[in-house]
């Protein structure tokens, strides 16, 4: 059950709806939740997590607007079948593909590419959007 893997902590400064949203996005991005997977109803998840139904409804609505979820009326809410339809995911997939192809042309296999990314991810300026904008 989804509620068993979600942890909402009211003592954190982060709003409850943001905690829920971020955890659902993380599970979608990691593949723990797959396209087509059905989510609990708003009322059921709210009850399981001891949240107000409006809090869960807000998260579902925001994730649907962002392309992560699809709501099909009485058939419920599911993980979107085509995350590539989401502009952010489409761009990320395109950039990832281009990067992997370039690394392969330099002689890097997938394992070496991942190791290279891990080694360089913590360097100053890497991943810092402010410094990369110039």
What's the quick description here?
By secondary structure, this protein is mainly α. The chain is 53% helix and 4% strand. The longest helix is centred in the C-terminal third of the chain and has 19 residues, at 87-105.
Radius of gyration: 18 Å
Percent helix, as a range, is 40-55%
Mean pLDDT: 85
Low-confidence stretches: 130-134
Write down how many β-strands occur, each being a DSSP E stretch of 2 or more residues. 2
* Tally of DSSP helical segments: 6
Strand order of the largest sheet: 1-2
In what range is the share of β-strand residues? under 5%
Q: Which structural class do you get from the secondary structure elements?
A: mainly alpha
Task: Tell me, briefly, the overall form.
Answer: elongated
Order of helices and strands: HHHEEHHH
Question: What characterizes the major β-sheet?
Answer: 2 strands, antiparallel
Distance from N terminus to C terminus (CA atoms, Å) equals: 46 Å
Describe this structure in words.
The protein is mostly helical and 134 residues long. It is 53% helix and 4% strand. It has six helices and two strands. The chain has helices at 16-30, 42-49, 53-65, 87-105, 110-120, 129-133, and strands at residues 69-71, 77-79. It has a two-stranded antiparallel sheet with strand order 1-2. Helix 1 crosses helix 3 and helix 2 packs across helix 3 (53-65). The protein is elongated and about 50 Å long. The model is unreliable at 130-134 (pLDDT under 50).
């Amino acid at each position: 059950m989804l509620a068993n893997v979600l942890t909402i902590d009211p003592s954190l400064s982060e709003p409850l709806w943001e905690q829920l949203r971020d955890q659902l996005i993380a599970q979608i991005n990691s593949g723990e939740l797959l396209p087509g997977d059905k989510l609990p109803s708003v009322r059921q998840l709210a009850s399981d997590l001891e949240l107000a139904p409006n809090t869960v409804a807000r998260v579902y609505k925001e994730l649907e607007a962002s392309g992560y979820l699809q709501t099909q009326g009485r058939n419920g809410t599911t993980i979107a079948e085509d995350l590539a339809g989401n502009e952010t995911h489409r761009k990320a997939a395109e950039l990832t593909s281009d990067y992997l192809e370039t690394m392969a042309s330099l002689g890097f296999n997938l394992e070496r590419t991942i190791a290279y990314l891990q080694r360089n991810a913590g360097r100053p300026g890497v991943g810092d959007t402010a410094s990369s904008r110039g």
